[in-house]
Amino acid sequence: MVALRLFISSAVFSSVIATAYWIFSKEPTGTFLLGVMSFGLLFVAGYTIVAEREADLVGDRPEARPVDAAGELVGTYSIRSPLPVWTALAVSCVGLGIVVSPAVAALGVVAMLIAGVLFILQSR
Amino acid sequence: MSPIAEQAVAPPGRSDLLGWLTSTDHKRIGTLYVITSLGFFLVAGALAVVMRTQLARPNSTLVSPHAFNQLFTLHGTAMIFLVVAPFAVGLANFLIPLQIGAPDMAFPRLNATSYWMFLFGGLTVFLGALTSEGAADSGWTAYAPLSEIKISTGLGQDMWIVGVFLVSVATILTAINFITTTFIYRAPGMTMWRIPIFAWEMVATSLLIFMAFPSLAAALLLLFVDRHLGGHAFDPSYGGNAVLWQHLFWFFGHPEVYVLILPYFGVVSEIIPVFSRKPIFGYTGLVIAAFAIAGLSMGVWAHHMFTTGAVDDPFFSFLSFMIAVPTGVKFFNWIGTMWRGSISLATPMLFCVGFLMNFLLGGVTGVMIASPPIDFHAEDSYFIVAHMHYVLGGGSLFAIFAALFFWWPKMFGVKLDERLGKLCFWLLFVGFNVTFFPMHLLGIEGMPRRVFTYPDVGSFPLLNSLATAGSYVMLAGVVAFAWNVVVSTRKRDPVGPDPWEANSLEWWTSSPPPEHNFDDLPPIRSARPVFDAHHPEIAKGGAG
Predict the structure, then answer these.
(1) Interface of B with A in 507-536 (CB under 8 A)
(2) B248 in a domain, yes or no?
(3) Which of B126, B182, B232, B425 has fewest C-beta within 10 Å?
(4) Would the CB atoms of B121 and A82 count as touching at under 8 Å?
(5) Which residues pair with A80 in a beta bridge?
(6) Taking CB atoms and an 8 Å limit, are B191 and A59 in contact across chains?
(7) With contact defined as beta carbons under 8 Å apart, do B189 and B524 qualify?
């Protein structure tokens, strides 16, 4: 509920600011930027309305006890994975390669593809 | 099934290089962020000392004009993108899951990817210095046309674009993680109105990142297209508009100021109650003020552009003044928390008091330059340098040291030495004010910023010498901190879970915490669950 209120009030506030800015300034760049921001927040607010219907978070119950969250394990957190550093290195190679050497960029693209495949396999 | 029920299952942590390279544990990633940002801080600080040495006397020739431009570009870029913001991200990475009773961040691998992208982005910016024409030299604001290929011809500017782009994408990804974690992964009973103020401030900061950083990413892409793919977005000679860069940049740039300060509002909101032995005064007011600041900050970007003559001055001036109101609310709450408290001036609290004093001065000068007539006089002068350093140096940097002294025991299991800590504080406090207060006067007298030298007129030489002397005192303060780290680490005096008798959930678990964060959790019935558990006779429900 708090998240919903937060996103709705942010969306309303930014829409008001965007409208006021256009009325006072008639300046297109800033109005566009504020408009995109308002649209994004409205989208998130709309999504939150749908998501909140399904939500039953134990963290939202003021009288909940730690034991209320206990139960069957549904999965584990991955404590280590080489993929993050590999992915970041690949993305950096693409970026750096674009300005330094196309070969480095190509290497980066290949590395990114491999990372993508490994991410999919690891998530199964 | 709640994710809180899940337990991290993994072999005991390895302290070897491979363990750190592949870790997705939020505490390790947080620690990596903190250490990396401190590393960049040392480099950026060293660059500042070189600049101040160059400016100590008029007509000095220690560095060339071109080198000086590179120095202030790298210094500004590093401090903004690689030090103040990433330190907050690191702290939040370490603290948020602990503060809300979660086993980890919502997306651990994304979290690790963000860190490594940040690191590689930062290194890319600095690697530009090794190219034939040196690093980028168009300032951290990279104003067009200075950053266009006609003027900044070197590879360093391109590497700056790529590096800052990587950092901004990493920051957006990490913001997604913070918001999801805080909204979804709270422990039983940890309702949103019971989460610590620091976690709230990080939610507001993450929201700002979502709204502001895409504009920077778009601006950087356009600049790259202009430089290499025949675009003319910022080139007036082909129908482009250089002011467009300023719009796109400051649409990011002003909210970025609050990305750099809101987390530290959270830091002082956590520390002041602990050393005042009182609950925070006005919990709800502090939260609302944070979001009011975040919202208003999205509508004030063009107060950086008053002197272009191309923006609506009254609109931006009015909204800029308005930001002083929620900021004043926060000050009121902090003072209200200290009022009639049993204050102990341990090092973290000293840094918080220093933060309040410095940030107040930075805030007041901010209100002054929100007024266009004053801004027209002060724009691009040392007055602006003084203002922004009082906000981001005297504000954020002092809060960084407060956070280091406060949470160091939780991160590393040992307390930093108090005597050396106080020495560090006084050196930094005196050094900071001796360095930056004279810059107000220099600005009023008309000394422009970003110049490599100045004529021997008026009080320019005296005030500049004073500022340089102050920077050496600050350097001594940083050395005192480094020595403190060495001494405290060697002493290896382990601390318990709650060495400060603090309030929030991170102080329930061991120092440093185990890989799965908590062996057990106390009942959470207020915003001070650890205090409640230790003092059931005075515990009461509700926020605060």
Answers:
(1) 515, 520-521, 523, 525
(2) yes
(3) B232
(4) no
(5) B23
(6) yes
(7) yes
Q: Quote the domain boundaries for residue B102.
A: 28-539
Q: Rounded to two decimals, what is the model's pTM? A: 0.94
Pick the closest to residue B370 from B304, B292, B290 (CA basis): B304
Number of domains making up chain B: 1
pLDDT tens-digit readout, A65-115: 888 877 765 555 667 899 999 999 999 999 999 999 999 999 999 999 999
Look up residue B518 and give its amino acid: F
Instruction: Please confirm whether the linkage preceding B273 is cis (ω < 30° from 0).
Output: no
Please say whether the beta carbons of B23 and B112 come within 8 A.
Answer: yes
Query: Does residue B464 sit within a domain?
Result: yes
Q: Give residues with Cβ within 8 angstroms of B210, minimum separation 6.
A: A40, B172, B175, B176
How many other C-beta atoms are found inside a 10 Å radius of the C-beta of residue B201?
29
Test the B interface: residue of A12, A23, A57 with most B CBs within 10 Å: A57
pLDDT-based confidence at residue B70 (cuts at 50, 70, 90) = very high
Task: Please report the beta strands in A7-107, taking only residues with DSSP state E, as ranges in sequence order.
Answer: none
- Ramachandran class of B517: left when φ > 0, alpha when ψ lies in -120 to 50, beta otherwise: left
B229 touches chain A (CB under 8 A): no
Distance, CA of B249 to CA of B287 (rounded, Å):
28
Minimum distance, in Å, between the CA of residue A9 and any CA atom of chain B: 10
Which pLDDT value is given to residue B9?
41
Tokens at B290, concatenated: 């944070």
**B62 band by pLDDT with thresholds 50, 70 and 90:** very high
Average predicted confidence (pLDDT) for chain B: 94
Please indicate, yes or no, if residue B56 is contained in any of the structural domains: yes
Q: What is the pLDDT of residue B492?
A: 83
| C-alpha to C-alpha distances, A51 to A2, A43, A113, B354, B435, nearest whole angstrom | 13, 12, 32, 44, 52
Per-residue model confidence as pLDDT tens digits over B470-483: 999 999 999 999 99
Averaged pLDDT for residues B298-303: 94
User: Is the peptide bond prior to B512 cis by the omega test (within 30 degrees of 0)?
Assistant: yes
Q: With CB atoms and an 8 Å threshold, state whether A79 touches B24.
A: yes
Phi-psi group of A12: left, alpha or beta (phi > 0 → left; psi -120 to 50 → alpha; rest → beta): alpha
Percent of chain B with pLDDT strictly greater than 90: 92
Cβ(B8)–Cβ(B58) below 8 Å: no
In a domain, B15, yes or no: no
* CA B515 remoteness from chain centre: 27
Structure tokens at A99: 């300005």
Distance of CA B472 to the CA centre of its chain: 22
Q: What CATH number is attached to the domain comprising B126?
A: 1.20.210.10
Q: What is the mean pLDDT of the segment spanning B215-236?
A: 94
Distance CA B111, CA B174 (A): 6
DSSP letter for each residue of B164-186: HHHHHHHHHHHHHHHHHHHHH-P
Three-class secondary structure of residue A41 per DSSP: helix
Q: Higher pLDDT residue, A74 or B281?
A: B281
Q: Which neighbouring-strand residues pair with B23?
A: A80
Of B9, B22, B25, nearest to A85 by CB-CB distance is B22
pLDDT of residue A57: 84
Q: Rg of the Cα trace of chain A? A: 23
Structure tokens at B176: 């997604």
